[in-house]
From TrEMBL:
Protein name according to UniProt: Diaminopimelate epimerase
Annotated InterPro entries: Pro_racemase_fam (IPR008794)
Family membership noted in the UniProt record: Belongs to the proline racemase family.
Domain of life: Bacteria
Organism of this sequence: Rubellimicrobium roseum
MF GO annotations: 4-hydroxyproline epimerase activity
SUPFAM superfamilies: Diaminopimelate epimerase-like
């Protein structure tokens, strides 16, 4: 298990990501997001940091120019694409899990 924290030095971290073995057979790794208010099922920023750490620490093999991974978050599977150059992650994109709409075709009056 690896713990990845985010935040500014000397200020308590906003969140912590725990990298765990995946339980889904399609996933390369799993991660749990721990924030001060709970355990969100998904976060884009946390996903990007987890990918960067997995590849930078050789927890998963990096392939240049593109490394593709599948991560398992509490919300489901995330298909990730990391653009890599010179042994470093330059950019991360991912396909998020499906979400539900609270309202469709709602009219909003915004001043």
């Amino acid at each position: 298990m690896r713990v990845i924290t985010g935040g500014v030095p000397h200020i308590p971290a906003d969140c912590c990501n725990i990298v765990v073995p995946a339980s889904h057979p399609e996933a390369d790794a799993g991660f749990i997001i721990m924030e001060q208010v709970g355990y969100p099922g998904m976060s884009g920023g946390n996903t990007i940091w987890v990918v960067r750490v997995l590849l930078a620490m050789s927890m998963r093999p990096m392939q240049e120019p593109v490394t593709e991974l599948t991560l398992e978050a509490l919300a489901g599977l995330l298909r990730v694409r990391a653009e890599c150059q010179g042994g470093k992650v330059e950019a991360v994109t991912f396909r998020d899990v499906p979400t539900l709409a609270a309202h469709l075709d709602a009219v909003l009056d915004v001043p």
